Amino acid sequence: MINVCCRAIAQLRACRPIPEPQVRELCYKAREILIEEGNVVSVHAPVTICGDIHGQFHDLMELFRVGGDVPDTNYLFMGDFVDRGFYSLESFLLLLCLKVRYPDRITLIRGNHESRQITTVYGFYDECIRKYGSANVWRYCCEVFDYLALGALVLGATTDVPPAASDNENTQSTLPPEDEEVESEVLNANGDILSKTLRRRFAGLSMMSHHTNSSRISPAPDVDVPSPPDHPASSLPLQSSPSSQSLFTPPTSTTGAVLCVHGGLSPLIETVDKIRLIDRKQEVPHEGAMCDLLWSDPDEIEGWGLSPRGAGFLFGADIVRHFNHNNDLSLVARAHQLVMEGYKEMFDKTIVTVWSAPNYCYRCGNVAAILELGEDGSNGGCIARANGDQGRREPVGTDGSEGGSGVLWNLASPGRRYRVFEAAPQGTRGMPAKKPVGEYFL
Amino acid sequence: MLQVLQIVRDNPTGSQFLMSSSTIPNLNAFRRGQRGRGRGSGRGVGSSHSGAAGLGHGRHRPHDEIIQNTDNDAATSRLSAVEAGYLEDPFARLLSADEDGPVARRLPLMNRGTYLRTASIDRIVDTFLSSTGHGCRQIISLGAGSDTRYFRLKHKRQNLAIVYHEVDFEANTRRKIGRLRSPPFADKAKTLAGVDMHASDVRLSEDGSTLRSSEYNIHPQDLRRLPRDNADLTGVDKDLPTLIISECCLVYLPPEDADAVLRYFSQLFPSTTPLAIVVYEPIRPHDSFGRTMVRNLMSRGIQLQTLEKYAGLAEQQERLKTYGFRGDDGTGSGAEAVDINFIWQRWTPPEEKERVDGLEWMDELEEFVLLAKHYCICWGWRGYGEGSGWKELPSSSPN
Ligand SMILES: [Mn+2]
Known about the structure:
Chain A is α/β, with parallel strands linked by helices. Helices cover 25% and strands 18% of the residues of chain A. Chain A has helices spanning 2-13, 20-34, 57-67, 88-101, 116-122, 124-132, 136-145, 242-246, 272-276, 289-295, 317-326, 426-429; strands at residues 40-44, 47-50, 75-77, 106-108, 151-155, 182-187, 193-198, 257-261, 297-298, 304-306, 313-315, 329-334, 343-346, 351-354, 368-373, 393-396, 408-411, 416-421.
C-alpha cells in the first residue's frame, strides 16, 4: 500500500487524477484509518492549521511551499477541500493519500462541503463525472466524507510564537527586548514579518503593540491596535485583587487547548465531550449539533442568532467566552468564511477564522493564510491536561462594553504565527482552456 | 486580440485609420464566428450590409462581437434564476440561446444577483409608471439584447398604455426579432401578454433587424453613433413621460461615447417632459475584488470602459446630475445610486427575503456581499411634480 500510495502521491502532485480502481482502494484504506479517529481528534502542537481549500490545487501546492511539506510539517485541515475550484478531485485525493501515508502528520476534519447534497450543487459531483465518466469516484469520496472527524483539539501549544524556520535568521534581529513578549506575528510567503502583536501585561502597566508593515499584503484590520492605557485596565480587578496578580508571576507558558472545527459552535453543545457523543458516520444533517459545527459563524451579536446561510447559527462573543472558559480552551480556530486578509481574529482573540484559498474562485482577490502553533517545551514535553488549572490566565471581555461585568479569566491564548500567501503564479496555475462562464453579471 | 483592443482604446474618436494589416485576420475570424452563431432569416443580406457600413468603424468589431455575446451570458443567467424560482418570466426560455437544451445552472449567489438586478429595475419601472399619471408612457431600453421586460409588463397589465423601444447592435436585434416571430414565442406573447407579433401594424425591415409597431419597436443602432449621426430613433415621442434603461450597456462604451449618449437623451426631451433613467453596471474597480474583476473580464476580451471614470456611487450619482437629473428643484428632479448589497438589505421586503433565502442553500454569503458591492443601481428623474414616488425609493443619501 505504501508503494501504491507513494506513486499516487507523485501523480496527484502533478495534478493528474489517479485511475478509478486506485481511488477505490485509497478511499477504502482511508476509511479504515478515519474510523479509528474520534469525533474530536487530539493533535499535539506544533501544528499548522489550514482553512478552506475548495479545489484550488495549485494554491494548495503553494500552501505546502509556504508552510512546509508533509510529513515535515504537522498539518490540520479544517474541511471544505472540494467544490468551487477546478481541481477538487486532485486536491482531496492528494490530502487523502497523505493521510493514508502519514496518518499522524496530517489531520483532516469535515467541512460543510464534504456532503453529498452540497457537492452536487457546487461542482465536485460534476467534476467527477467530467473526469471519470461516472459517479463512482464521487460516491467513494462521499463515503470517506462520512468518516471524517468533526473537530480537533490542539494540546500543548505554547504562549510563545513558535520558532521561525531556520532560513529566516534575519527575523532574529527584529525580536523585541526580553521583557516584551510577542503574542502573534504575521509573515508573508517569503517569511518576512509584516506585523506583530505584543502580549498585554495585566500585572504591570505596559501595554504595547508594535506594527511593522512593509508589504502589499496588509495586516488584518483587527490585529491589536494599542488601547488607550487607562481604558481596559480600569475594568480589571488588578489593584483590588492581589491573588489575580499571582496568576502572572512567574508566567508559565501553558495555554489552554485549541478547538478546531469547520464552522463554529452549536447551542446544543456546551462541552467538547458532547461532540464526542455524536454519531457522525452519516451525511451532514440539515439541523442539529453536527450540522451546526460545520455551518455556524461568529457574529457581532449577543447570544445566538439565525444564520442567513439557512443552516447552523450565528453566535456572539459571550458564547465563545463562556464556551472557552467552561472547556479550558484558549482559542477556537475555524474556517468557513472568506476573509480578505486570510485570517481574522475576533472577540478579544477568543476565536479565529483561517481561510486558505487565495483569490477564492479565481475572482475574490483575497489572500490566504495558515496558522502555526508552537510546542510548549516548558513541561519537558508533557502535555498539559486540558482541564488543568495551573495554566496562565488572561481576562477576556475587556473591551469595556459591558463595564467589566463580563470579564472571564480564561487560559492565555497560544502564540500565533500567521503565514499569508497569494494565489500561485499564473504560469503554474494551469487554468483549463475553457473557463466557466457566469462569474460576473454582464 | 489585446492589441486590437488597445487600438480601440487609444483611438476612441474613430477619426483615423490606425488598423494595421496584421490585425485584419483577427477580424475575419470573428466575423466567421458570428455567422456560425447567428439565427433568423435574412442573415446573408445583413452581413453584407454590415460589412459595407462597417468599414468606417471596423476596428470596433472584435470588442463589439464580444460585447454582443455578453447578452447570451445574461440570458442564460436570467433563465437559471427563473428555473430556480427567483424570477417569474414565462418568456425567458424562448428568448435565450439555449431554448431547447438543459438550462446551464448558475450558482445560488449568481441567481440571487440576477434576481436583485431584475427586481430592482422592475421596481424603478413600477415607480416610473406610478409616478406619471394614467396617460401613455414610453420606455427606451439601451442594449436591450434578449431582455423580456416589455412582455413581462404586458403580461402583468395588458391595458398598460406604453411605447417601448429597444436599442441594440444589429446582430442582436436581428437574432431577437427572429425569435420573437417564431411560432412558439409568438403564441406565448399572444396568449400571455396579448401581444400579436404578426399583427398588421408590425413591420420588419428587409434584413430583419428592425421592428416597428404602434407600441413595440426594436432599433438596430450602434449607440456610439447615435449622438454623432444625430439620427432620431424613429417613433420616439419627445412629449411622453419616458424612462431610459441602461442594464450593463453604457459601461462597455468609451467614456466620451457613454457621456454623449446621456447628453443626447437629456437634450432630446424638453425639460417639461417627465424623464427618468436607471443604470445598472459594475463599480469599484480599485479594491482587490475590483482589480481581479477587471483583469478577469479583460482576459475574456471584455472592457468595462467607463468603470475608471464612474468608479463609485458618488461618481455615478454625479454623472446623472451632470446630464440633466440635477436635483436642485426640490422633489422635481434628483439622482441616487446604491449598490446591489444595499438593494438586498434595504429594498427587499422581509417576506420576499425569506422566500428568496429559502430557494437554495446559500453557502457563499461573504462572496455574495463582495460581488453585490461591485454592482450598482443608479437612477435619476426630472420634470416631476410634488408627490412622485421617486423620493420613496430607499437610498443612502440623506433626505
Ligand atoms: Mn464552509
